[in-house]
Amino acid sequence: MNDIKKRFYDSFKKLFILAEVIELTSEIVEESSSINILEKHIVDKFILACIVYHARLHPSEKKVFLSSNSKEFGQREVIEILQDTGVRYFNKTQNFLGWLQSQ
């Protein structure tokens, strides 16, 4: 258990240094209207639109989205949108940490 905690905190420190906050802009709100999924989950739809917008601005960078909300973000259509913009989706922290450690 101590090894898992250490790996988590080490990974979280890396993430904190490398992560970038994506702010909701009017362009992103407008773009979200073109996403025809998550209609009943407007906040999740905006989150997806922010991620997609940001990913398109940075096509050559590694991009990861971690959310345990697999009910919405684990939908095939959402995963396809993320993959199309080069974003890897993880719904489990353990899987994300394993991927991160391999990088």
Considering the chains and any ligands shown, give keywords for the structure:
single chain; 103 residues; mainly alpha; two-stranded parallel sheet; 6 helices; 2 strands; 8% strand
Shape: globular
Radius of gyration: 15 Å
Main structural class: mainly alpha
What count of structural domains? Answer: 1
Residues in β-strands, percent = 5-15%
Report how far apart the termini are: 22 Å
**Number of helical stretches of at least 4 residues:** 6
Major pleated sheet: 2 strands, parallel
- Helices and strands, in order, run as HHHEHHEH
Strand line-up across the major sheet: 1-2
Spans of at least 5 consecutive residues whose pLDDT stays below 50 are none
Rounded mean pLDDT is: 90
Helix content: 55-70%
Find the count of extended strands (DSSP E, 2+ residues): 2
Description:
With 103 residues, the protein is mainly alpha-helical. The protein has one domain (21-102). It has helices spanning 2-18, 26-32, 42-57, 70-73, 76-84, 93-102, and strands at residues 63-66, 87-90. The chain has a two-stranded parallel sheet. The longest helix has 17 residues, at 2-18. The relative contact order is 0.15.
